[in-house]
Amino acid sequence: MKVSVIGSGTMGSGIAQIAATNGHEVCLFDSFDGAIKNAEDKLIKILNRLVEKEKISDQEKDDILSRINFSKKIEDINGSGLVIEAIVESLEIKQKIFTDIEKLVDNKCIIASNTSSLSIASIASSCEKSERVIGIHFFNPAPLMPLVEIIPAVQTSSETLNNAKSIIDSWGKVTVIAKDTPGFIVNRVARPFYGEAIRIYEEGVADFSTIDWAMREIGGFRMGPFELMDYIGNDINYTVTETVFSAFYFDQRYKPSFTQKRMMEAGYLGRKSGRGYYNYADKIPGANKDKKLGRKILWRILSMLINEAADALFLNIATKEDIDLAMTKGVNYPKGLLAWADEVGIKNVLNQLEELYCEYGEDRYRPSPLLRRMIKNNKTFY
Ligand code: NAI
Fold it and tell me: Which of 26, 76, 239, 280 is the residue whose CA sits 20 to 30 A from 101?
């Protein structure tokens, strides 16, 4: 089956690499001068590195490259069984290209979007056969991150869902199915990892290094929130937060912070600009390794994360297994949040949230009704 990828930027190139590595004939299309050449040069570099590391042979590298048609002509997507769009995050521009794509492929072709924040229903509405449109959301870097969220819109047929899922499964990815709601699973459930960490800093409880240390060393997270925001980029992370916040009709739970907004405005974007929460030209300041303080920080952020995961389950955004898989395979959490809740005790999580809610009187700390219900019925998640 031929696979086409629209947009040869960070995500599109990665997706094309995965499809070609899995034996598909691939058309990677981009409309901008230089973008296609750039994607080809980058992919050759990546594949050369894989050869050096003996992950693939020279022959495999040549085969992968020979399967990809780097194209500036959208007509070249003709004959595809699956088209994945990964262009700029603009509804208007995406709708326009979906209309164009539909004219070039046959009726059976699945047309997918890699959008992080737009509704799949709104993108699908630009197609005549909207039942063939679906969200297929990869994580950056696509060839390395195992998770892919599959998002059927209200219009999507079960045939499209089943076929899309089995194609992505056959590429060795871990797929989870998410409802077409803001942030899908990962970008919704992960919000407090950043937001509550910033809030703890704003209150003067601890500095960036100490909060990062607590989450890494005591919590077992691969990176602390501030080093991770610096890695992702404060512009990108702030935009995701703001988009999720407004898409949720300004639910206070997702409120962005001034601290991060100022970082973005100042151009302190993180590693890519040499400075974010940390100045990478200097030594990173040491943490206050007070275990009691560290546990307090971890517990506050972890309770908020578990609350988000529980609420996503409460609202049927995904199954409990998929919510846990999404966080371990999409953002490398050391444990699934619902399994973690069972381990630390749901009652303890609820107590912490009620304590915060009572102290601050802010809606951001309201516990999910599911947690209360589970305590009442003496239940665990697993
Ligand atoms: P990017 O800016 O690296 O690449 C976008 C590419 O699309 C560029 O090469 C541009 O020339 C091309 N393009 C723009 N308009 C076009 C059009 N009308 N026709 C053809 N090509 C066009 O963007 P990136 O980061 O790869 O993101 C692409 C999509 O993937 C967005 O929807 C984004 O929300 C989503 N996404 C991004 C992730 C990330 O971490 N960067 C993670 C998951 C999803």
Answer: 239
